[in-house]
Write a structure and sequence with these properties.
Helices cover 12% and strands 42% of the residues. The strands form 2 sheets. The protein has a 7-stranded mixed sheet with strand order 6-7-8-9-4-3-11, covered by helices on one side. The chain has a 5-stranded mixed sheet with strand order 10-1-2-5-12, with no helix packed on it. It is globular, with a radius of gyration of 14 Å. It is built from 2 helices and 12 strands, in the order E-E-E-H-E-E-E-E-E-E-E-E-H-E. It is mainly beta and 139 residues long. It has one domain: Metal Binding Protein, Guanine Nucleotide Exchange Factor, Chain A (Beta Complex), CATH 2.170.150.
Length: 139
């Protein structure tokens, strides 16, 4: 199944291949200061793939902080952050915001708080390689 999502104005859109779609979609409520301020609630399928489409690249801002190992793709027009990516060993991994989903019953989303504060860089990279979407394409 494909889960489609987008920012509010549609400038950043994505299609996440997730087969089979689980009865419950796991989502992580990140406790970092950026995600707390934006209501970041992320999901990924380590066996899936992600196609990200950007209508106007001039209206996309990328933000990285802390370890600078992840980039938040922010629509400069509407302010929504639908996708986060991390380039690890030459491969782009990603997570998507469940708030950006289109046409998915919200009762399927199961949120759990996560706190990565103090996580060592090596552990963070290993976790992303293990849990994030391993195939991300931009068009």
């Amino acid at each position: 199944m494909t889960i489609d999502g987008r920012c509010h104005c549609g400038n950043i859109a994505f299609s996440l291949a997730w087969d089979p779609l689980p009865a419950e979609i796991p989502a992580r409520a990140c406790g970092c200061t950026f995600c707390l301020k934006h209501g970041g609630l992320w999901t990924s399928n380590p066996k899936g793939s992600l196609d990200v489409r950007i209508a106007d690249r001039a209206r996309v801002r990328r933000y990285a902080f802390g370890t600078r190992t992840a980039e938040f793709h922010i629509c400069a027009a509407c302010g929504v952050v639908p996708v986060v990516t991390s380039v690890l060993d030459g491969r782009t991994y990603g997570v998507v915001s469940v708030h950006a989903f289109e046409g998915i019953d919200r009762s399927r989303i199961r949120s759990a708080p996560m706190d990565y504060e103090g996580e060592a860089l090596e552990a963070r990279v290993a976790r992303r390689k293990r849990n994030w979407i391993p195939e991300v394409r931009f068009s």
